[in-house]
Design a protein that fits this description.
The chain is an alpha+beta fold. It has one helix and nine strands; from the N terminus they run αβββββββββ. Strands 2, 5, 6, 8 and 9 form a five-stranded antiparallel β-sheet that branches. Strands 1-7-3-4 form a four-stranded antiparallel β-sheet. The protein is rod-shaped, with a radius of gyration of 50 Å.
Amino acid sequence: MATQIEVVLTTLRTVMDHNTRLENELTRTNQLLNILSTEYASTKEMLHSFTKDYALTKQNVAALTTEQVSTKNELAVLTTEQAATKQKLAALSTEYGSTKDELAALSTEHGSTKDELAALTREHASTKDELCPTIMSHYAEDIQTELVLKGVPIVYSYDGDIRTYGTGTLSAVLNIAVGDDVWIRIMNNPTNDGNVRVHGNGWSWLKKTLLVS
């Protein structure tokens, strides 16, 4: 009888040990499920964040594409403006070359009648120019200088010195039509007592700037 009781007790202990192990396994399983549930929630949040980032990236790509098209259009406009500027520079270069040729044959005249050799420029197109002639008198001589457009004096200067040379500079912005003559005139009047000579050798010169063509 005692032996049977021991067998029963041993069996009960075995069953209890087994139940304990099952409970421990169940506890660990629940813990793992909790961890998996937490990781699932975190993964779900990450996926939601990735979805938002993807949508934002898609919008940014669309905006960049629009900006790229706009930049391409702006580059096309700049290219057109560059071509126009290049043409204007070519025209200015031509004008500068023409002005150099005219200045190479520069002469002045005095009196009330224009000498054809005294014309500084004869325009072949209507322009607006700034003309700035600088004239030096000879030693101890005073002279009256005029900038003349189509025979009409525009601006004057009177310069000279009894002890040295005198220099006068004129400046005027002129609207010059096709065929208009512009020249420098050295006037002989009672005050300057016949002094009509201009000092050359690079001391007398003309600056002509094309403002509007």
